[in-house]
Amino acid sequence: MLTRWVAVGVLLTMSCAVMAQLGDEDTTTNVLFRYTNDKGNLVVEQSIPPAAAAGGYEIITEQGRVLKKVPKALQGEDAVKYAERLRREAQLAEWDAKLKRRYSSIKDIEAAKKRALSELSGNLGILRSNLSGVVSRLEEQQRLAGVKERNAQKIPQTVLDNIASLESERVEVIRQIATRENELAQRAKTFDRDIERFRVILGETPAP
């Protein structure tokens, strides 16, 4: 039992380290609108209604840093389209700035991608190894229960408890594996997007 919890602790420690690295390397930026609604309340959202777009607003980062202050301008739907274009331009500018601060070449991004995906793959390897161990212990407990049943004997409560506990653990580890596999795929896509955007920055490909 002690070995099991030590293994879980090691896994959680590694998982936290990986997630911290992912957060640090995520170069995408969520750019938001900040405006005053018709009730006089300050609102921060990813989209902006026509009245607010016409009445003036700020484009900010998630941390509250103002990227652009837009005064009263166009009316109706045109104002919304204009605001969204400004938001997109600010988002791209923030993305470009982060990429240029972090990397000096495409090779730098590819190396970072390799490191990050290697970390996640290692984490997945630990989870799969844990799953194999859980399944082996579960099968052993099920075998013991089967022997008792064939001999028309009562299955010990400890065996039944072990089977229930191991089955729950198996389901949880499978869930964690699926989560990590999704993280691995999404992280690869993020790096690929960064590479394509850096090509635009370098002038190798035209802006979309």
TrEMBL record:
Highest taxon of source: Bacteria
Cleavable signal peptide: 1-20
UniProt keyword annotations, A-Z: Signal
Name the UniProt record assigns to this protein: DUF4124 domain-containing protein
High-level lineage: Bacteria, Pseudomonadati, Pseudomonadota, Gammaproteobacteria, Cellvibrionales
